[in-house]
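Quarterly update from the structural biology core.
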Amino acid sequence: MTLFRVVLIFAVLVCSPACLAKPGFSVLFVNPSLAGEPFWGKVQKITEEACKQLGVNIDVIYGDGNRHIQLAELKKYLDYRASPDYVILMLYPGGAEQTLTMLDNYGIKFITLEQTITGMEKEEIGFPKQRFEHWLGEIYFDNYQAGFDLAKSLHDRVKANGYKGNVNGLAINGHYGSESDKRNQGAADYFKSAGVKLQQTVHASWSKEQAYTKTKRLFKRYPNTQLIWSASDLMAMGAQTAIRQLNKEGSKVAIGGFDWLSDSLSLIQQGHLSASVGGHFMMGGWALVSIFDYHHGNKYWLNNSQITFELSSITQDNIDEYIWISNNPDWSRIDYKQFSILDKKLTQYDFSPKYLKQSKTQSVILE
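Predicted structure, tokenized:
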């Protein structure tokens, strides 16, 4: 073999795509809740599975449901561990500026989940890449539309049950805050447009127990109630337990919430709950896909500051397509690489819970 051919082969190998590909990188996922909490535990598992498929190293820390603890745990990690290349986290109201400043000072690029900061605090931190240059962007869903869609699903169930009179409803909100208030406003606007009388709205602090207690009191005051809108599945389950114990016909009271919790999906399948709006537990995985693309040269986060998506409603009409995610689901059944736009001509991401539908011929539909 001539020297020229040897040099040529060496040059081809050096310049091949495999050799030019960037090595694996690291991500820190900040779970804002307690280890084992159903919803955020699901977000974490999906993010970890996406990392596994895409060859990304991941570490996890917990905020224990408290902004002070989350900030302290993040500071401890950054002070004493090797700095990650990227961070995925949810900001707690009251601690956003400190968190963003710390990450920016370390020069770590990060993505935030959900839009949790409003008012004066939002004005202080601004938008991604304004005050904090390493803040790549936000991934969040439309809480208003989700609240509207749940209200419609519950109203549709009342009509499907054959009820012909004026429909009366109750609403169980979470806490006094932007997330729950936007959901509740969406519901209120739907009820008004559809002629549903919203008799009363109460707050139950995302607690199943509080929702149970308050539903019992509310039904003594409003016995002619056909639907109960709830800002979470846990509170919806509390309301459902109260209705059952009051010896009401549960099938005639349409009850629903948010989050697609495993128990709530099972209750929908059994006909004890009417609807659950969700799919947002995928947002950590979607954030990871977008980071993977960015790390390998995609310009989406250079030209954009947000990714938004709509949630989907699971009802008794489509529960069979989604029930696979209720019992110990295998999140590796989802091909996270197919959501990437790295090697495609697309300029926008198409993230939607509709891709979690089970097909008779496929593990998961990826249209």
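The two ends are 50 Å apart (CA to CA).
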